[in-house]
Design goal:
single chain; alpha/beta; Spore Coat Polysaccharide Biosynthesis Protein SpsA, Chain A; seven-stranded mixed β-sheet; 41% helix; 16% strand
């Protein structure tokens, strides 16, 4: 069996529009020019539109892409499921809307050769196009997570993160607030998921590189500043309590 250098995990929930606009074609075009081996795992999160049909049509012509179908568990659940299936030496998860283009991967891979275990995108100076409410929420969340967790990361929420295989498998096996059993409804992008995995990485002593990336604002769901901010705060508190109780050390 051919050894795979890179696994790309792409969550999908009702992404018919982006699929019809050629999102997967863009990913395939970028990767096809590389001299390393790769696989792309598109994890469908129980889509109710034509997403699965369109993905199946695409992968029938490209064996390096595969579809993993799941019942609806939210973005956290889809990424976790994808990591469990990934066989690459390095694992990247990215959004299907390509808010951060695949081309930014070229900035990431050299950091692994420098000894980093985890490379994450940072949009802190490049949030062009984002509404003021989203920017305010992001800054407020950053302040809260620094107070509660002292994480030391500027942008935890960029949906473009890469891991060494060992790092990813270890981190994702220790997730507690977010796992495959979490019940969800509707389109969910929970801020605490990224925070929990980065917090675990820090506890395990993994070396993290935060790299500025190109980013284009994409609104994929309705945002409730009060509800989403409260949910984010609750997640931070849960992570802190877990840490105090030694849950992540087990």
């Amino acid at each position: 069996m051919e050894k795979i250098y890179l696994s790309v995990i792409i969550p999908c929930y009702n992404e018919e529009r982006n699929l019809r606009l050629g999102a997967l074609e863009n990913v395939a075009h970028f990767l096809s020019k590389k001299d390393y081996t790769y696989e792309v795992i598109v994890v469908d999160d129980g889509s109710t539109d034509e997403s699965k049909k369109l993905i199946n049509q695409f992968i029938s012509d490209d064996p390096k892409f595969k579809l993993l179908s799941r019942e609806h568990k939210g973005k956290a659940g889809t990424v976790i499921a994808g990591v469990k299936e990934a066989k690459g030496e390095y694992i990247l998860f990215t959004d299907l809307d390509q808010a951060t283009p695949m081309s930014q991967l070229d900035l990431f891979l050299p950091y692994f050769k420098k000894g980093f275990d985890l490379v994450i995108g940072s949009r802190n100076t490049k949030r062009r196009g984002a509404p003021l409410t989203r920017i305010a929420m992001a800054r407020g969340f950053m302040i809260l997570r620094n107070i509660i967790l002292n994480l030391g990361v500027n942008d935890t929420q960029c949906g473009f993160k890469a891991f060494s295989k060992i790092c990813a498998k270890n981190i994702f096996s220790k997730l507690k607030v977010f796992n495959l059993q979490n019940p969800v409804s509707g389109s969910t992008v929970t801020a605490g998921f990224d925070v929990e995995l980065l917090y675990i990485a820090k506890l395990l002593g993994y070396k993290i590189a935060e790299v500025p990336v190109e980013w284009h604002y994409q609104e994929t769901r309705n945002v409730s500043p009060i509800r989403d901010s409260l949910e984010g705060l609750i997640d931070l508190i849960k992570i802190r309590i877990n840490s105090m109780n030694g849950v992540y050390n087990k």
